[in-house]
Fold this sequence. Notes:
This is D-alanine--D-alanine ligase. Its main location: cytoplasm. By secondary structure, this protein is of the alpha+beta class. The chain has 3 domains: 79 residues, Rossmann fold (3-Layer(aba) Sandwich); 142 residues, D-amino Acid Aminotransferase, Chain A, domain 1 (2-Layer Sandwich), CATH 3.30.470.20; 61 residues, ATP-grasp fold, A domain (Dna Ligase, domain 1, 2-Layer Sandwich), CATH 3.30.1490.20. The chain has 10 helices and 13 strands. The strands form 3 sheets. Strands 8, 9, 10, 11, 12 and 13 form a 6-stranded antiparallel β-sheet that branches. A 4-stranded antiparallel β-sheet has the order 4-7-5-6, with helices on one face. The two termini are 25 Å apart.
Amino acid sequence: MSGFGKVAVLFGGTSAEREVSLNSGSRVLAALQGQGIDAHPFDPAEQPLDALKGYDRAFVALHGRHGEDGTIQGALELMHIPYTGSGVMASALGMDKFRTKLLWQAAGLPVPEYAILNADSDFADIEEELGLPIFVKPAHEGSSIGISKVKEHNTLHLAYAEAAKYDSLVIAEKGVMGGEYTVGIIGRGDEMVALPIIKIEPATDWYDYEAKYNRDDTRYLCPCGLSEAKEMEIRKGALEAFRILGGRGWGRVDFLMDEDGNHYFLEVNTAPGMTDHSLVPMAARVHGMDYPTLVRRVLELATND
Length: 305
């Protein structure tokens, strides 16, 4: 007996990130079963949620809407099933890039300059204000879905139209081009730790969906090349950024560097990917925690309080 009881691995779902979630969840399931844990696949797109009755805990490997945004977390709480990752509020905030930025700004954490776009925006004025390049993104999607990099004048409106297919709330963000990094986080309360930072170097123009999941030429550097003092400063800031949103269990905080060595927190991921290209397993490995150990640790941290 594992002591975990009957475990549901939630993956698949109905979001635009379904394929990534199926990949993550199948690996998590195999890792749990390989350790003798009574784990079972559960796809909310194919099974009614009340079929979860009788499970003792849930590993949430869903990505995107209805999996990472507080909705499934609320359902699990109503059913009194302990689950992995952040609670309802932190999940909802983490899925909302705009409100994440507002909270971080209020706490004095650095974020890239940005503007909210709508159909009536003065696109030329925003281009002038932010400068090129500009990244345009739906506020409630992950995996770089619906994101465009605007490099030419008078094309911001086209990027807005693309993002607006996915979301009514669209953000334009100043391009911070000194490097893209991420910090994995695991633990709860005072025992929460930031994992070693990973630097992401895509062979493509930027770290898009293709570079994240389908290409083998994206480079992941860990150690990341920052000075030890800078890495410790940012890891401490990432923990603060995660805690401000109410994060718990595990997650990932992405940040950018500018050419002058300043960092800017970008967004938080409260149900990180667990595929063979995913970043938290990579950082955990450098930290001395292999994939099965990481999965088991995340499951140990499951709660519904």
